[in-house]
Amino acid sequence: MEWLLAPATAAAASTLRGELTAFLRRHAEESDVVDDAGLVVSELLGNAVEHAGGPIWVTLDWSASRPELVVHDLGPTFDVGKLTLPTGDSVRGRGLWLVSQLATDLDVVAKRDVGKRIGTVLPLTRRVERSIDPPRREVNPLPALDEAGPTGFGRESFLRALVVELARTAENSTGPASAEQTVAQVGATVGGQMEEEYRRAREVAGRLTVDQITDCYLRLKAAINGDFYVISADEERIVLGNRRCPFGDTVRRAPALCRMTSSVFGGIAARNHGDAVVLLDERIAVGDPECRVTVLLGEAARKNPGGHHYRQHG
To answer: What is the DSSP letter of 32?
Structure first.
């Protein structure tokens, strides 16, 4: 689940803290430590609101036994190793020190341009049950009014808004998990057609090589106004950077759209190398200056427990 706080106000952070704590309370096995987890959420959001000076992106991933909370912001970073309990009457730094005591694996990573990523594992385990996630925070996926030209909104603005609004409607109707499956399925279907177009244009038959897969990625993303480039490529992994998101600034209001890229890339890689894992290492959608996508192939994919997994069927 992902949320965007823009503007990042104390009131918005408080509302999100309540929403997240309520979700944790519904699904946690240990009800007596939910308030501790809520305090961790509150301190991390409060720190970001106070120091970031810009939008904040929040992700909660409970695919493992314990939930991982990640907060992206554009504020200054700090050294986890230097967190100590403040002495005297000072309150500065007390909240982050408390987080380091209540949660585990507190990790702070500076972004390449500006800002940081704070990740931590909350002290809860998930109760075995059918998960019903709360709806994500309301965002406005429609094109900004200043995008309109003399005759109104153009086709690109309309289609971009259509894709985002369809995804949001599916999520509100059937839940986040179902909506994500829908986006992934759309990406896989579209990716298959794009691969067939690439094969016809390049007159390629049989399994695509690593170089051909990389060329295919660049071709299909350039066609929809992305700006992907190759960082490295070998038999185990393909690493791509991207300077411009095809969805434009809209992706910052709906970071889940990144799953489309994951599904397209993963499907093409799996059809040609059996197994693939896609890692969205950096994303413009959560405040990084560029995207960085790693596609693991074959045995390297099978050995990696993280990311989005794809396997050739049939």
So the answer is: G
Q: Which residue has the tokens 């690109």?
A: 156
Residues of the chain with pLDDT under 70: 80-93, 128-149, 153-157, 164, 167-168, 170-180, 183, 313-314
Return the closest-CA partner of residue 62 out of 70, 54, 71. 70
**What SS3 class is residue 257?**
helix
Whole-angstrom distance, CA of residue 128 vs CA of residue 197 = 44
DSSP bridge partners of 275: 311
Q: How far is CA 1 from each of CA 107, 140, 229, rounded to the nearest angstrom?
A: 20, 17, 28
Give the pLDDT confidence of 24-82 residue by residue, as tens digits.
888 788 888 899 889 999 989 988 888 887 899 998 888 777 889 999 998 887 776 66
pTM of the shown model = 0.67
DSSP state of 87: P
